[in-house]
Every structure is written in structure tokens, then in C-alpha cells.
Amino acid sequence: MRQSNTYIIIFTLITTVFVGGTLAFTSIMLGPRQAISIEYDTKSQILGAVMNITKNDDVLGIYDKRIVSFVVNSKGELVEKDDKGQPLVAEKVDVSKNFKLKPEDRLLPVFKYVSESDSTKVEAYILPTYGNGLWNRIWAFIALDANFETVKGISFGHLQETPGLGARISEDPVISERYVGKKIYNEKGELVSVDMVKGEKGEPLDPHHVDGMSGATLTGTGVNEMIKQYLNSYEAYFEKVKSQKVAGL
Amino acid sequence: MSTEVVEEKTIKKASEPLLSKRRKKIISDPLNEENPVTIQVLGICSALAITIKMEPTIIMSLAVIFTMVFSNLLISLIRNYVPNRIRIIVQLAVVALFVTLVSEFLKAFNYPMYKVLGAFVGLIITNCIVMGRLEAFAMGNKPYDSILDGLGSGLGYSWIILAVAFFREFLGSGSILNFKVFEALNIPYVNNGLMVDSIGAFMILAIIIWIQRTKTGYVEQ
Questions:
Q1: Does A71 reside within a domain?
Q2: What pTM did the predictor assign?
Q3: What gap in Å lies between CA B26 and CA B4, rounded to an integer?
Q4: Is residue A84 part of a domain?
Q5: To 10 degrees, what angle do helices B87-109 and B111-122 make?
């Protein structure tokens, strides 16, 4: 009886329904709670580019007060509605999905970090970037000053970089501190980005380079490409803001 | 492992104390003489992957103990109804169920840890210890004994990876549970990069196995 095909099929069916049902139920029950966790995490990362977030900080409160967000396209124009005509929310734009599109088709969220006293005064522009590390995806939020010239901070994230080597981009605060104060434009006014060099020498470098990570050259290459590609995408937006052509940006 | 099944059959008394000598042995054996990591050399992959820092290791230990206890219990409850030909698939489904539950809860309540452990929590499914205990113990023993066995094996796995994590974090990052020990004591210390690498985990694991086998006199057959 226990070995008959009918029994096995019925048993399998019951098992599948039980396991699937339990998981579906849990997923639905925990869904809202997970959404809050993810929102909290995203906002901490965005703010992490300009400040040190500690566990006791009211991330959502600070975010509501200090961040003004919107979405632009690669021509620097404000995008207010998605393909289906729904209003676009910058925090909900999936940068990883847009990364798969051609650079000129991507939606580019901008997070303006405004002054605490005057919400029209921009202290920094925080821009999400996305790319490939050595093993898997990497991303970063880079904060530029109000003139789009100097890096004010950067917070990295990664999925699977090598622990202790490439993973240092998010684990070792020294790496992101090296970017602070670096310039993304050269003297001729060309966008040159900030590159991580090969090897970790601990010597002072020019304003367009930061020290590398020993043993993680390929992660470093990924980081460089990521930052350069996205700064290029945002360049049109920088120009528009600088020439004050567009209101509301 | 077959000895345990025999043992179960020989002792069949109506009322056995909740923690009889035999049951205590079920819990304590995997801690040392039958340790799943150091003696049976199972679950090495996760022992290497998540032991860089102690905090994720603790979460991982709890996840494994939870998974082992509950999948052992569930499999033991349905052991007489599971068709023999598909028993491995059923065990897999049960383990996957509990692992996914852990993963979902972690995502909801400790998202930063979820990001650190992410893939590795899912990989508990492939942790040979869990499946091994289901097949070797829970399929042939009563629910309560199976819970104890799951607890014992889970703890056996946990203390080893916690020991590995302790030394790796201490020597590799100079901290214990993210508390910078050397900085607090004002002792200059250069972090040992080898410990952060998987090689460090292998070395510590090997040293633990060495000490343990010297003491127990265990020899591979």
C-alpha cells in the first residue's frame, strides 16, 4: 500500500500543498513587515552617503526631512510618470532593473540632500550607481556637492564580493572615506570620474584617483566602471542644473 | 549511526524519564564524539563561509538549530507514512520549508543580517548535517527523541562554527562581536588577513579537529 504509485502521488500532492501553503501564508503575512525593512535599508544607504548612520538614528524621520527625490532621464529631463502613466517614486525605481537597459533608456533617480533649516538649499546630490563586481552585482550611492564637482561621500553595497578583499568596499569605512574630497571634473572641465588605482600603497594621490584595495583589483575595476558610467549618464542633468534651464530640479 | 536505531529498538519501555541517560547521550554525543563537523566532516562549506565575524555566525547557528529541530520533528511525525521511494525528496521539501521560513523571518526582522547571510541561509538546505540526521535518525525514531537529536546535532555544529568564528574575528579583525578589543586595550595589532580568508577557517578547523582527536583517540577507519 505505502509503495503503490497512487499512494505516492497522493502523498506528494498533500506534501506540496502543505509546504506551498505554509510558505505562501508566511510570505503574505510577513510581506508588509519586509517592505518596511527594505525601505529602512534603502533609506539608510542613501543617507549613508552623506552621514554616518547609527542604529539609534531615526532614519525614516531624517530622510523625510532632508531628502527631496525625483527621477530624471539620460537627457537630464524630469520624468514624472512611468510607462503606464503612474507617478514615479524615486525610491521605488529599481536601479538593478534599469541597469539592464541601454544607458540612454535608464531612469535615473536623484536624491537631493537639503539643508536642515532651508529646504531649497541643496547640500548634496546623492546618486545611485550600479554595476558588476568580481562575482556579482555591486552598487553605490555617491554624494556630490551642490556644484557637482567634489565627492562628499559614498556608500557601497555588494552581493558577493570576496570577504576581506572586495567586500571591503562596504565593510571597511576607510575605502569610502578615501573618496571624500575627490574631484570628478579635470581642469579642462571634462568629466573624468574618480578611479581606484591598482594596489594599496597608502600614498597621497591626485584628486581623480583613490588608493586601491590590495587583492581586489577586479572589484576595483568594477567600481570604477560603475561610477564612470553613471556619472556620464547623469552629466546631462548636471549641465541642466548648472545652466539653471530647468525649474524644479 | 545505525547503532542508534538498534538502541532504540532494544530499549522500549512504557515510561522513560524526559531526560534519561540515553536521551542525554543523544544530545551530548554530537557535541563531541559524534560531532557532525569535526568527526563526520559534514557542513564544512558553511563553516567556512559565514565564520568571518561572530554575529552572523550566531544567527546562522540559531537558524541551523531551528531547522534541524523542526525538520527532525516533522519527519519523525510522518515517518511511518512517507513512501520509501520518495523519502529523500520529502526530506528535502521539509528542510526547504523550514529554511525558507527562517529566511523570510530574517528578511522581515533583521534585514541587515539577511543581506549578510542571504544565500547561506538558503544553503542550509544543502547542509549535509540536516539531511543526514533526517535520514539516519528521524526516519527511525520517535518525535521527542528526534527533537533531542536535532538539538544535539545543531549544537554540535554551532559550537564548532562559533569557535572558528571567534578566532577568525579576533585575529582577522581584532574584535569580538564587533567590539575592537585591541583598540580598547591600546595594543597595536595588525589584522591577520589570512584569518579573513577561507584558509584561516581551514586552519582553525584543523587545529580543533587535531586537539579533539588527540583527546578522544578517534581514528578514521
A1: yes
A2: 0.77
A3: 9
A4: yes
A5: 170
